[in-house]
Amino acid sequence: MVAGTSKIRERSPDHPEEAFGCRCSRIQGGFLILVITAMLLFYYVDLSKVSEIWSETVQMIFNTTRASSNSFTTASAGEWISSFIQESEIPSEQCTSESPYLVAYPCNYHYILNESERCQNDKPFLVLLVPVAPNNREARDAVRATWGSEKMVMDKVVSLFFLLGQPGHEGREELQQKIFQESEEHHDIIQSDFLDSYKNLTIKTMVTMEWLATYCQNATYAMKIDSDMFLNLDVLMNVLLQAPRENYMTGLVTKGAVVLRNPNSKWYLPKHVFPEDFYPPYALGLGYVLSMDLPNKLIEGAKHVKGIYIEDVFLGLCMRYLEIPFTSPDDQSLFNVFPVPYDRCRYSKLIATTTNSLEEQVNSWKDLKKPGPPC
Questions:
Q1: What are the strands, taking DSSP E only, across 246-347?
Q2: What is the pLDDT of residues 225-249, one digit of tens each?
Q3: Could you say which DSSP state residue 146 is in?
Q4: Which residues contact 140 (CB under 8 A, 6 or more apart)?
Q5: What is the Cα–Cα distance from 172 to 122, expressed in whole angstroms?
Q6: Cβ-count burial of 321 within 10 angstroms (0-12 exposed, 13-18 middle, 19+ buried)?
Q7: Cα Rg for the chain, rounded, in angstroms?
Q8: What is the pTM for the complete model shown?
Q9: What is the pLDDT of residues 267-279, one digit of tens each?
Q10: Is the CB of residue 281 less than 8 Å from the CB of residue 255?
């Protein structure tokens, strides 16, 4: 075969028609063999078996597609978990950061659970996005029982979603099974394959922005709010009905915050990672609201900013890069970083406050919603 090829190559410059004829005869011979083989297969293979195999293949593809979307059954989830857990190690290996104070973003993360059609179906005016640890079912249920249960506020649709990362290695399979079951029950969980941890909050925030930009563009506003917060949607909606619909981000905006250099601090950043002494303005991560043109802009801005692990500061850096100012609320008491002691009149006038416990969060909301004037 090598010798024959060598001869063709040697003769080709002087006799191209001979080389061409030789190639054609080989191609024709190969084509004839393929035709004969196909005829033999058609004659001897049981077509009912072919149909059976094809049906099984289609069904397998369909089941796999369902498993990767939000439509899990308990049985299919149980069969799929083990293989997923092995495959889900890959992104964490590919997405690595160069420093313990930086996160692996931008990177191509994938959804384990996704409510990809909810926004198209609900057509929300406001989307509530609650980052929460995978094992914190109690916090999710508290939100579902309180402000997360409000689907219509002042004739505007509100949709609720929880944002989860991937559980740690210990007990992952059992916990993931429970999350699948919870998702099947409530259809309000979005889960991605980054490791869920405090240090990865910036990743969780940016995956949230990616999700909004991809699946919820028809909404007008989104609010990222922590699960331990009390939220008064009536006051928030009053603000949003008068707010700009572009380049708008508001919350408890802090300015001139000092960069902490004490290595024992939870929010420590060394100078070689962030050399500035003061942070640019940013909205505290306990709860901030943004217009729906911003997710795409923030994703673009994130490509030009160091991915520091302090998520609300990171968004502030992205906003500075984009040259978009934060909007501070006229009333600085609307957002509260320290728990406000419950008073029905006071709570009827604020938007959000941290709470001391889930029990306090639930009881405060129930009391505020009782009939009668709050003041």
A1: 249-254, 282-291, 335-336
A2: 999 999 999 999 999 999 999 999 9
A3: T
A4: 130, 132, 162, 182, 227
A5: 32
A6: middle
A7: 29
A8: 0.77
A9: 999 999 999 999 9
A10: yes
